[in-house]
Structure formats: structure tokens, C-alpha cells
Amino acid sequence: MPSNDKREYRALEIRALNSEGEGPEYMVEGYASTFEPYVLFKTDEGTEYREQIEPTAFDEADLSDVVFRIDHEGRVYARSSAGTLEVSPDEHGLHTKTDLSKTQRAREVFADIEAGNYQKMSFAFTVAEDHFDKATHTRIIDRIAKVFDVSPVTFPANPTTELGVATRDYFNGVIEAEQAERLETERRERQRTKIKILLEVSNGY
How far is Cα 59 from Cα 199, in angstroms, rounded to an integer? Predict the structure, then answer.
């Protein structure tokens, strides 16, 4: 991805419906996101940084032309504007249902999902508004601008390396700010201790 690409990626479960005796043939569904907080990564010092997508985050999101691809690249196997992909928020998260019956290659993708070759799906999106809760180290996504695609992924993203440039930049900035604040607090504490010692010496203690 180019360095100015603001897309972010998250991975969740995907399943083949009719492999479990449900739904029409060649249909898969999953949740591209949920509204529960989740840990994105943990620092070497043990601090966990979390993220939570607000239930209203998709209210104004552009879901007009979302595509279904593999690993966010290459051929399109289904598309919301073509009626073969449904992307809609519900009480649990962003639900997706995909009809892979229309072409031979799409049916081959379904067979791979049914066989367990793809067990996670990911979605690419951009953020319109967010804020950070310092007390819980949680990034809260208030509004999502656009969802670009949903994709079965060969390997789910490693949060520390593959969440996308925008996410890494965001949390790098948060961590740097927290470190700077901690160093400044320590500096002030040392200064107060030094002043206290000088006062005690000057008063003959």
C-alpha cells in the first residue's frame, strides 16, 4: 500500500452457509466487524491497546459499492451494486452475506471457504471520526467514512505489522504522546524531590 493510503483492515470469522445445512448453495456470511472492544496489540511493557467501533459508526458510512475479493486484491467475485453482496450493520456488527453462485471462479472460492482454506474475513475501510480513551488505552471509532471491500484472507493481519499505515501511525502517535507525558511527569517529580531536599538542607534538617 502507498504510504498515504488511509485504509485500515480488521479480520473476523467467515462461514459457508449451506455446508451447515443452511441457506441456498454457494452462500457465505460473516461479520466484518463487531461492536465489542478488542485488543489490537500489546506492547513489550505489557500495555494493551484496544479498539471499539461504536454501534452508530456505520450510520453515515458509504456502503454503496463494496466488493468481495481475496486478500483485498485482484478479481472481484461479488459486488453490492450487483446485488451479490449484502453489507449491513445490525445489533452485533457489520454483517455480510455473499452469493458466490454466479460464476465458476466465484464457486471455486466458495469451495475453498467450505473446505476451510479461508477461515477469516477482513474488511477495508476509512475512518471519518474517532477519539482515544486514555484511561483504558482504547481507540473508539465514532464514524466510518467508507467500506471498500470484504475479503477472505489467507493469513489474518498481524496487528503490529499489517493493520495498515493509518492505524500504525495513529497508535505510534498515541504511544509517543503517552511516553512523553510519562517522562515529563517523572522529570517534574525529580524536580520536586530535588527542591524538597534543598529546602530541608537549607532549614537544617
Answer: 60
